[in-house]
Amino acid sequence: SFVAMVKGKNGNGMERKRTTSDARDGLEYNKKVRKLQDEAAAIEKKADEEEAKAAEERKETEEDYEDEFIPDPDCNPDTPRKVLFSDISAAAFNIKKGISKTPCTKSVQLSHKYGVDLYFKKEYLQVTGSFKERGARFALSRLTEEEKRNGVIAASAGNHALALCYHGNMMGVSVTVVMPVFAPLMKITMCRSYGATVLLKGNNIGKAKDYAMHISKEKKLKYINGYDAPDILAGQGTIGLEILEQVPDTDVVLVPVGGGGLIAGVAVALKTLKPTVKVYGIEAETCPSFTRAYEAGHVITEMAGSTLADGLAVPTVGCNSLATAKGLIDKMVTVDEGSIALSILRLIELEKAVVEGAGGVCLAAILSDKLPELQGKKVVAILSGGNIDTTVLGRAIERGLAVDGRLIRIEVVVSDRPGGIAELSTRIAQAGGSIKDIFHERAWISTDVFSVRVKVVAETRDKEHVLELEKTLKERYTDFSHLGTMVVHYNRQIENRPWLEGIRIRED
């Protein structure tokens, strides 16, 4: 008799005891084992080949998605559709049971501070934190029975996705959302919590939309454009109806502008009911796509730069939005990043309202003195959304403090002997400043080896206090600079030299 050791694929030995003394029986057994091993290897090889083939097919399919353009039938630039007041009235009737009628309240402190009778339409108080719920709810209510059974799809990185997922869940319509890969994890998680299918595709919203259009065609899902579908525009226009109901004697309404859906719907509602009301659109200066398209009279594509108002960074505005808004907008204004940050800070401090960058652009236009004609007028500013990431909020507050003269950076060369930095700290404290950060360097200083360059980040009361602090330090230190002032100075020098166009010195 003998003992046979059979070694399996996983490398473990399995002991088999044979009770016969016939050697040929052991050989036959080994042949059977080898045959089984060969069959297992063949199955594994076939599985690997099938997986590689599937991966190749997926790659080819994705390449086809990128190469083939599928248009949105509801948003055709050649035949744009204008939204009428009757569409907005129908939307108001259909969404009233599922949408909050948000307050439009006067800001006493900001009205007094800036000489404007200022009211805020607080759309950030909707369940998902933005005005997008209005259009999403109405678009879902207009689906046919077949479309409801099949479900809907949209491409969005934020508010439209949240609104569509929430109301789809409430109305029993399955929702698929295609988000860019950089979409915030919080928003992805929230969409999934509403029962939606979330697909991550592309490094920008344009590629996400292309992918969504192919999925829409393949699975027969209704695609809902978040800023240009006619039903979306009609839903957003209900804000205009509420504004005139809440503040009937309003003179001017300030509207954030990204893709154009909000201002188009609101303008139709306002101008139909009260033609004397002026409608101003506010954009981020890093992406003035609607301003350019409105001036040109047709849809064009602009480069979208990085901005706090990321919800407004839409390179190509909607064709239906542009056609609907034509002749109804009295003025377009762009605002810089500093003004947006200061606006977010002001709203937190004075209104106890946390808004995203897109929601703060209307107040930013007032803070930046770009609308002097509003003095003494009754003005309504739409706070469109409040979905701001916590980390971005922290940065916005600090940037706002810097713009407001309450956070400054200074550089001073002091003695490197004992007590040099202590004296600087004492002088800043005596002037009423509070040091937040301080650090020094020796290696890159051009003066004598017994000096050190100290960089200080300090908290101050306001811009007047900054001037007082500068005066105090300049009396004692000859090598002193306020970095904020230097940045402004050199950027002004650059602006006066056309050949340096596009170059800016960053504050950091």
UniProtKB/TrEMBL annotation:
Residues 96-385 form the Tryptophan synthase beta chain-like PALP domain. Residues 1-28, 42-79 are annotated as: Disordered. Residues 14-28, 42-61 have a biased composition (Basic and acidic residues). SUPFAM superfamilies: ACT-like, Tryptophan synthase beta subunit-like PLP-dependent enzymes. It comes from the Eukaryota. GO terms for molecular function: L-serine ammonia-lyase activity; threonine deaminase activity. GO terms for biological process: isoleucine biosynthetic process; L-serine catabolic process; L-threonine catabolic process. Residues 62-71 have a biased composition (Acidic residues). InterPro entries: ACT-like_dom_sf, ACT_ThrD-II-like, Ser/Thr_Dehydratase, Thr_deHydtase_catblc, TrpB-like_PALP, TrpB-like_PALP_sf. The keyword Lyase applies. The keyword Lyase applies. Pfam families: PALP. Its cofactor is pyridoxal 5'-phosphate. Keywords: Lyase, Pyridoxal phosphate. Belongs to the serine/threonine dehydratase family. NCBIfam families: ilvA_1Cterm. This is L-serine deaminase.
